[in-house]
């Protein structure tokens, strides 16, 4: 492996691998920041033809061949170039074929083998180039030119792709197979390469291209539709801002109703329940259990509402009407009048009150507690009763005695 | 179980719009000309017929013969459409701008509520726009929280049939064919009243560029 070409190639690839960070920065940002890297490294990369300086005052940039290599391998969307120069490649193929035939004629077989290898490389390279161009087109179609934002930009991208496609089809017309067949002559090897292989690829690619073209036209229509729609929307908003009193004509009242506004009323309403259908029994059961909850919650809110009203009503209720209140007042007055201590139950018996005794005692205690502190000072209240037999600390009141202090 | 034909009839008679997104089975059913004719026959009994938008992507129910009663019902529906048109259009513009891909909503497009919400929250102009839309009578929101406003708007639009929520657990919505119907209505109004909406927008954009 002392071939100098081999050594140089390996050295070049090693340099690529070793300085991949510089190369990728140049690829992604478009230029190299010279302060970030060692100047020796950059000089070396310039020397290898990886980086170059377009103008003396400009930053370093990546060589287009390296950029192309990366774009193809990374399937980068930014790659929008199609190299469709088929004419010159075909010319090269024809030239090498002549060399090959001359070598065969001179019976220098080793030389002819080298030419054959070169020719195969050229043909496959041409086909690969065409196919990758088609792939590139499809990639852009598939993501609907997602790499640009606005619809207008998408339309422009689409137009670019269409022009590239047309260019490619024109270039494909340069394949003249009768010409190629004549050049190949009766050599089996040449016929296989120049006629069979190329023809198959040609038909494949032209088919792909016509599908791509129709797809592009579809997409263009779609983009135009989007554009039209968004303009309609914005126009409508603009219009209603400029003319706020704008009223849409009442179309259904016109003599002939536009088909668009002929929209029938919804006439199907939910059907009724058939309680006699045994099959539906379980479902109805579930529904009813669900219904209860609903009724419960609506009832609650109703109650809350009426209670709200009651709160304000209560303030106006005349308390004088209350029988207990009246009796309690009478009891207090009697104590004041007589000036003697009188138990609540005694008063109850005296007056033959119809109230329950317990309610009455509660009423009296309430009445006393309801007085202001100044008023309470005039009276003395005594709880008559006994402690609870079982639970200490509980006192059972049987009667209260009220007297003046 | 009722047949597909029954379901299609029910959907049409309940005033629903049938498109591929809202009800794919019914849509495919109606695309078959025999099925279409059968449904049409049933509807004709009730003075109704199947109507479709221009591109045959959305089917709905229309009157066959228009008398006074039908005219009244249509007038009612038309009033609803015309009063809700501006809020809907403003909402469509907001969604389009917030999504940032410049393509207006159409049938089958996906709206992720969470994404939309974060964009709107980050952009004061969108927040204002949303608050304005939410206050329209159509949505009638009194909330000042972006979250509540958006949820209310989306719920209301789902009820009205403009959106569809395929999975109740996810806040992901699909636009239905009724949105496309809305576009046809706007286009029709533009044409018939000669508003030249598109030309005005282009002019406005040009003027904006000059400034």
Distance between the termini of chain B: 64 Å
The geometry of chain B reads as globular
Number of DSSP helical runs of chain B: 9
Rg of chain A, Å, rounded: 52 Å
CATH architecture of the largest domain in chain B: Orthogonal Bundle
Report strand % of chain A. 5-15%
Sketch the major β-sheet of chain B.
3 strands, antiparallel
Shape of chain A: elongated
Largest sheet of chain A at a glance? Answer: 3 strands, antiparallel
Mean pLDDT of chain B: 87
**Separate helix tally of chain A:** 14
Please count the beta strands of chain B (DSSP E, at least 2 residues each): 6
Distance between the termini of chain A: 130 Å
Low-confidence stretches of chain A: none
Strand order of the largest sheet of chain A: 3-5-4
Number of domains of chain A: 3
What is the number of E strands of chain A? 5
Structural class of chain B: mainly alpha
Order of helices and strands of chain B: HEHHEEHEHHHEEHH
Measured as a percent range, the helix fraction of chain A is: 55-70%
The sequence of SSEs of chain A as H and E is HHHEEHHHHHHHHEHHHEE
Brief rundown of the structure:
The complex is a heterodimer of chains A (405) and B (211). Chain A is built from 14 helices and five strands. Chain A has helices spanning 4-18, 20-29, 39-47, 64-74, 86-105, 109-142, 151-172, 177-184, 188-242, 281-314, 323-338, 344-351, 357-369, 373-376; strands at 51-52, 61-62, 342-343, 379-387, 395-404.
Structure description:
Chain A is mainly alpha-helical. Helix content of chain A is 64%, strand content 6%. Chain A has helices at residues 4-18, 20-29, 39-47, 64-74, 86-105, 109-142, 151-172, 177-184, 188-242, 281-314, 323-338, 344-351, 357-369, 373-376; strands spanning 51-52, 61-62, 342-343, 379-387, 395-404. In chain A, strand 1 and strand 2 (61-62) form a beta hairpin. In chain A, helix 5 runs antiparallel to helix 6 (109-142), helix 6 runs parallel beside helix 9 and helix 7 (151-172) runs antiparallel to helix 9 (188-242). By secondary structure, chain B is mainly alpha-helical. Chain B has 2 domains: 4-63; 76-210, Orthogonal Bundle (Arc Repressor Mutant, subunit A). Chain B contains 9 helices and 6 strands. In chain B, the strands form 2 sheets. In chain B, strands 1-3-2 form a 3-stranded antiparallel sheet, sandwiched between helices. In chain B, strands 4-6-5 form a 3-stranded antiparallel sheet. In chain B, strand 5 (163-164) and strand 6 form a beta hairpin. In chain B, helix 1 crosses helix 2 (24-31) and helix 1 crosses helix 3. The radius of gyration of chain B is 19 Å and the shape is globular. The relative contact order of chain B is 0.12. The mean pLDDT of chain B is 87.
